[in-house]
Write a structure and sequence with these properties.
2 helices, Immunoglobulin-like, four-stranded mixed beta sheet, 2 domains, alpha+beta, four-stranded antiparallel beta sheet
Amino acid sequence: MTVAHSLNVGQGKLGRIVASLIALVAVVAAVFVAGLPSAAQAGGNPPPPPARIAIKVVDADGKVVPGAIVELMYKGRPLRREMTTRDGLAGFLRVIPAEYGIRAGKREVGVARERVIAKSGETTRVLLTLKKPDTTGSAVSGGGQTGSETSAGVSTAK
């Protein structure tokens, strides 16, 4: 017994249904593929390679800080969040090249902030020194940063 007989449909009608389904699938696939961006549609240039940001978090004495929360910020909004390892390290891979803010903190240790520029195909290395916030409310001299916005340095490497 054929599939056509089990469906109680004549072979001619079943053949037309199958042919119609195949044509429909082909049309849907063509529309889907046409909607995908390609190098040719994007001007022939592939997207730039992503950047990487490697962060080391230390306390005011220079000791690594495990378990600190590190956030990658873009235009004041958090994009990603990582926790430092036992070696005080955190990182963000496959980052679109741009300017970002890095914010880190841990209770009873302190907080730090830094602005970085992530460059295509490069690793930006950031050393953040956590310091306890200034509880007096006065600004610390040096760029108008408060005691809660301190950092130790940024470098870029390929």
